[in-house]
Specification:
The complex is a heterodimer of chains A (about 110) and B (about 110). With about 110 residues, chain A is mainly β. Chain A has strands spanning about 5, 10-15, 20-25, 30-35, 45-50, 55, 60-65, 70-75, 85-90, 100, 105-110. In chain A, the strands form two sheets. In chain A, strands 2, 4, 5, 6, 9, 10 and 11 form a seven-stranded mixed sheet that branches. Chain A has a four-stranded antiparallel sheet with strand order 1-3-8-7, with no helix packed on it. Chain B is mainly beta and about 110 residues long. Chain B is about 0% helix and about 55% strand. Chain B is built from no helices and eleven strands. Chain B has strands at about 5, 10-15, 20-25, 30-40, 40-50, 55, 65-70, 75-80, 85-95, 105, 110-114. In chain B, the strands form two sheets. In chain B, strands 2, 4, 5, 6, 9, 10 and 11 form a seven-stranded mixed sheet that branches. Chain B has a four-stranded antiparallel sheet with strand order 1-3-8-7, with no helix packed on it. In chain B, strand 7 and strand 8 form a beta hairpin. Classes of the chains: A mainly beta (about 110), B mainly beta (about 110). Chains A and B meet through strand 4, strand 5, strand 9 and strand 10 of A and strand 4, strand 5 and strand 10 of B.
Chain lengths: ~110, ~110
Amino acid sequence: QQPVQSPQAVILREGEDAVINCSSSKALYSVHWYRQKHGEAPVFLMILLKGGEQKGHDKISASFNEKKQQSSLYLTASQLSYSGTYFCGTEKETSGSRLTFGEGTQLTVNP
Amino acid sequence: KAGVTQTPRYLIKTRGQQVTLSCSPISGHRSVSWYQQTPGQGLQFLFEYFSETQRNKGNFPGRFSGRQFSNSRSEMNVSTLELGDSALYLCASSPSSGARQPQHFGDGTRLSIL
């Protein structure tokens, strides 16, 4: 079952903050975050694992609430380069290596 | 270090034909996953290969198949093409099997069915 992302779209001015949420109805083992710019490949941002481990870039922060099966991606002091579509991908405890992606959140950062 | 390479970048086919897409993973990566991306459905998992074995499969018909070679390069084949198969096909590689590590995506092959 596909995770639900919110909001679907957000428009920011440079320097503003944003939070993108991802929720699942299934027990999760990990949550991945990727950013895709138009016409480009998705780029890895962060993995959050059950148990608290995180792997990702220093400038990106995210959280994973294991009880609620929810993850949030925090974008602070946004820059123009943050624009793109953000996808969360979830791995269920029983799905092995299969990632299920949400429909994406389109983020636009204006000057 | 070279990234994930997918060929061809663009492909136009007609209904009923078949197509083969290629993916060369990052050197040293042994796992390759394939995804279909469409505006309406987002990123849909097709299958994952590791050490020449299919480890996981998504909910796609049998017309979609794949394989992996001993050098970790992977191919995806779609037979009897339908209009609905028009999409961006992405492959992603990682050092080993399991979604608990970053997926490195290629630029994709955009397939258009006429």
